[in-house]
């Protein structure tokens, strides 16, 4: 029996236009009425996800790719940050390599970017320009870097044993974070707090940072539009994110 549903956002619950369909929202509301907990698990920060949070009204939020967990009362129940000195060292390693481009850093107080123009995505217009040649001197939830060669990303990661790195599919962007800042680690914390076993959790995702929770949760569902690796890890594959894939699958298999 499914008692909790964990949902990635981009490429999963959100359509390509970054909106949630009325159908998917109505299905999640039905789940709520049945006593099923709703959790979002996203690489976004709370500010970048606030519009979605207002619509979904999740019981728990996994943010920054698992670096931060906040409950519905706004309390932080889990967080893993990269210490300031290591953050600056990662940034310096990236700046000194010719195969890197733009850099963004999410801290507890701000979102810093290496470019002066607002980000293309409307959820990231709050980014503040920062010249990363100067030490930022702040702990960070994540450092996201434009890297044009996989080998370069791997070389940079290898210098920092306490950090992990993951690539976003279809992009040249790589996320560096605390090695325990993972979605599945956050799901495990939530399962213990809510007294819901991992076997009673259904998880939906589409990208590399979803693979572990899709593989380990009792019911792991990959999106049709997801990468091949996540489909291989999943027990099921639902429809794509532009055609109410989540809502239709839940109606048939959970409700």
How would you sum up this structure in a few lines?
With 255 residues, the chain is α/β, with parallel strands linked by helices. It contains 8 helices and 14 strands. It is globular and about 55 Å long.
Q: Strand-and-helix sequence, N→C?
A: EHEHEEEHEEEEHEEHEHEHEH
- Radius of gyration, Cα only, in angstroms? 18 Å
Number of helices: 8
Molecular shape:
globular
In terms of quaternary structure, the protein is single chain
Your description of this structure?
With 255 residues, this protein is α/β, with parallel strands linked by helices. The protein has helices spanning 22-33, 50-56, 84-95, 150-158, 183-194, 211-216, 228-233, 245-253; strands at 4-7, 37-41, 60-63, 68-71, 76-79, 100-106, 111-113, 128-129, 142-147, 163-167, 173-178, 201-205, 219-223, 236-238. The chain folds into 2 domains: 4-79 and 182-253, HAD superfamily/HAD-like (Rossmann fold, 3-Layer(aba) Sandwich); 84-178, Hypothetical Protein, Haloacid Dehalogenase-like Hydrolase, Chain: A, domain 2 (2-Layer Sandwich), CATH 3.30.1240.10. An 8-stranded mixed beta sheet has the order 5-4-3-2-1-12-13-14. A 6-stranded mixed beta sheet has the order 8-7-6-9-11-10. Helix 1 (22-33) links the parallel strand 1 and strand 2. Helix 1 packs parallel to helix 8 (245-253). The chain is globular. The mean pLDDT is 94.
